[in-house]
Model the fold of this input.
Amino acid sequence: MGSKNKLKRFKENESFANVVQPTREEVTSGAFPLKGIWAREFFKNDKPIVLELGCGKGEYTVHLARKYPEKNFIGVDIKGARFWRGAKTAIEEDLSNAAFLRTQIELIDQCFGPEEVSEIWITFPDPQIKYKRTKHRLTNMRFLDRYRNILQPSGVVHLKTDSEFMHGYTLGLLHGLGEELEYANHDVYNSDGVPEEVTSVQTFYESQYLEKDKKITYCRFKLRPN
Done:
């Protein structure tokens, strides 16, 4: 994507009512005004909140918002030029239950209050295979603790990835921590009984992986409250 195109998308994002772009300082200083009151103040309802972390172009956020009007969906990514597509589609389709938040995922528990989130989707994150980069792996212990801080006691986390490594790493970590694994599958498109929302939408990157015959994995788990 050219820099001209990026600037145009950044500019459009600023005009979109479904896009929230706080500064890092605003979030880390505790001055972010929507923390703990997203449903009431932003969506103007009391519906459950579902996050898609590292949402990319926002395909999952938009698809789930269409499918489940009884829930609020927020795609989270630091790359606003990417989620511009999802934000624009949500506006075009008048999806009032879809929004996008531009921030770093390591700040997620400073953007949402305790027990404010009912579900988290992590779709095709960078597996960060090199040992020195494990601190950025979205299912490491630090990130799980951040999710734990904002999830309701009955809340679930979904991980969908083309990385067997990421899938295996996460299952091993959950087992070691004694967390509750509800479902796991290492090849969702060649299995029976897979949850419908896992296969009914494909992200931009997922379709590319499938063209290369890569297996798509999925797991769903709960985290014990603090």
Observations:
- The two ends are 42 Å apart (CA to CA).
